[in-house]
Amino acid sequence: MSDQERANAYWKANLRLITWSLVIWFFASFGFGILLRPMLSGIAIGGTDLGFWFAQQGSIIVFLILIFFYAWRMNKLDAEHGVGEE
């Protein structure tokens, strides 16, 4: 496998990870917080309905989890493709 093919495989995996992270964040923030809020209004969490909770807190928590997941997965991806920092 040439260097160009390895670089292309690395960036393809990186873009796939970014795309899925953004899709998850979109559904957690826009989907659950805005579009699905009426459906989630009957479910109570922390004294408020689940749709409001996702709009105010849930999307932030999901975003923070995605940050740590992305960093962990990118470290593994870097090691797999031989471009790690260590």
From TrEMBL:
> Which residue range or ranges hold the Sodium symporter small subunit domain?
8-83
Presence of keyword Transmembrane helix: yes
InterPro entries reported for this sequence = Na_symporter_ssu
Q: Where are the transmembrane segments?
A: 20-40, 52-72
Keywords for the protein's UniProt record, in alphabetical order: Membrane, Transmembrane, Transmembrane helix
Among Pfam families, the record links this protein to: DUF4212
What NCBIfam families does its record include? Na_symport_sm
Please give the name of this protein. Membrane protein
